[in-house]
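Lab notebook, design round three. We kept the backbone fixed and only want residue identities now. Task for the bench partner: fill in a sequence for the structure below.
Input C-alpha cells:
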C-alpha cells in the first residue's frame, strides 16, 4: 500500500503493510509477531496486523509474572497462555 503525498507530510513513512484480521493459536500469533518484527528490522516498512485468538488466550508481557494468572481455566487448558516478545501487561 502506498500512502498519498498529502499524508506523507503528516506521517514519517510512505508505505504501510496491512495484514488482515485472522484468528490463530496463541503460540502462532507470538511466533508470527516475532518473525514480522525481525523481517521489518531490515525492510523498515511499518506493519499493521490485526488478530484474534482461537482458542481463547492470555498474552503476558515479556517481564510480567505468570503467577498472577494461575487458575482453574489455565490449569485445565480451557484458556491458553503465551508470552509476548515485548513488554506491557496481560491482554
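Proposed sequence:
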Amino acid at each position: 500500500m502506498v500512502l498519498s503525498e498529502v499524508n506523507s507530510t503528516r506521517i514519517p513513512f510512505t508505505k504501510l503493510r496491512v495484514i488482515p484480521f485472522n484468528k490463530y493459536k496463541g503460540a502462532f500469533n507470538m511466533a508470527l509477531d516475532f518473525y514480522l518484527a525481525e523481517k521489518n528490522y531490515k525492510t523498515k516498512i511499518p506493519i499493521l496486523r490485526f488478530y484474534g485468538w482461537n482458542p481463547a488466550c492470555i498474552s503476558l508481557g515479556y517481564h510480567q509474572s505468570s503467577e498472577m494468572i494461575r487458575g482453574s481455566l489455565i490449569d485445565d487448558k480451557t484458556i491458553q497462555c503465551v508470552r509476548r516478545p515485548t513488554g506491557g501487561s496481560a491482554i
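Keep this in mind before ordering anything: The longest strand covers residues 17-24.
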